[in-house]
Inverse folding.
């Protein structure tokens, strides 16, 4: 009876200890459910957001330190920025309280490309209309029906335009991809040779701007990395399989059941595939691309890469991480 009890104790207390070690933002004197309108973060910045009291809005960080006084009439968050309104005019502020878009817009900026353009939407009786403005206030793309979002600094994703189409265009309005898709996703923004993932009637396909289909074998694909590799996902009889493909849709690391070590879901970090010669290794990196842990756990799906027209089949020996060793010990006691 001791062994099952020990295992149960480990399973129950380890997650609690992990959770307790993660201190949540308290926002100081601002109540999150009452005074914090929204929050966001930017590269090399802490969490910050729009706060309000007595009908006035300002900017504060997650400790409650006021960064901009509560003297604005309204406010909202964009990714990595906040937008505020004063005397009927909207502007944009970055994480360092710098005004990067002057207070000149009559409507709230909907999105910002991070450089020099904003999207503003207008909800009308017959639908949503979007326009692109320069940060100086000049209009670049006049209002058209549909909801637009910046995919990056040069591409715009549009949905539900007046023709019922979705796709991507550049910031000058030149269509890169358009079709009657259930959804669209950018995988690679290499100019002139982009890759997109689209859904049509429950069918998922990777295509280019000319709608050439490269693969339709997977349920989901992740954006290509600098090496031109995408991690792909497929559900097989309720079991998740993961592999890796190149930009031509060729499988270079075959599908397998994927298991990461415990507690790998770390905010601001992600698992990546690295190719060194003909071997592949999964490693944990931060958002700047710096390795934050040694590749001690290559993972089951990381095999020797195949030569053309061959299937990879050689498994590396994975060293167990600390949490995985604890988990194996606990489950071993149950058995």
């Amino acid at each position: 009876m001791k062994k099952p009890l020990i295992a149960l104790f480990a399973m129950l207390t380890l997650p609690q200890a992990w959770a307790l070690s993660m201190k949540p933002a308290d926002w100081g004197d601002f109540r999150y459910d009452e005074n914090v309108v929204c929050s966001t973060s930017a590269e090399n910045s802490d969490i910050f957001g729009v706060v309000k009291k007595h009908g006035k809005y300002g900017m504060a960080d997650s400790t409650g330190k006021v960064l901009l006084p509560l003297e604005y009439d309204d406010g909202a968050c964009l990714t990595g920025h906040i937008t505020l309104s004063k005397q009927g005019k909207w502007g944009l502020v970055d994480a360092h309280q710098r005004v990067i878009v002057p207070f000149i817009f009559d409507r709230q900026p909907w999105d910002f490309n991070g450089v020099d353009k904003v999207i503003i939407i207008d909800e009308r009786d017959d639908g949503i209309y979007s326009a692109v403005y320069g940060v100086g206030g000049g209009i670049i793309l006049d209002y058209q029906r549909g909801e637009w979002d910046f995919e990056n600094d040069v591409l715009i994703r549009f949905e539900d335009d007046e023709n019922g189409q979705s796709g991507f265009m550049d910031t000058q309005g030149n269509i890169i991809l358009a079709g009657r898709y259930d959804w669209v996703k950018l995988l690679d923004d290499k100019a002139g040779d982009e890759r997109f993932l689209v859904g049509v009637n429950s069918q998922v396909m990777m295509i280019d701007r000319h709608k050439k289909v490269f693969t339709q074998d997977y349920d989901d694909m992740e954006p290509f990395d600098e090496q031109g590799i995408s991690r792909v996902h497929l559900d097989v009889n309720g079991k998740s399989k993961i592999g890796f493909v190149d930009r031509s849709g060729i499988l270079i690391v075959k599908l397998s059941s994927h298991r990461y070590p415990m507690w790998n879901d770390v905010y601001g970090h992600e698992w990546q595939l690295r190719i060194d010669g003909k071997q592949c290794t999964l490693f944990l990196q931060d958002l700047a691309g710096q390795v934050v842990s040694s590749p001690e756990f290559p993972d089951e799906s990381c095999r020797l890469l195949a030569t053309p027209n061959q299937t990879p089949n050689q498994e590396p020996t994975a060293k167990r991480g600390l949490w995985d060793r604890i988990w194996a010990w606990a489950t071993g006691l149950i058995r």
About this structure: The longest helix spans residues 2-20.
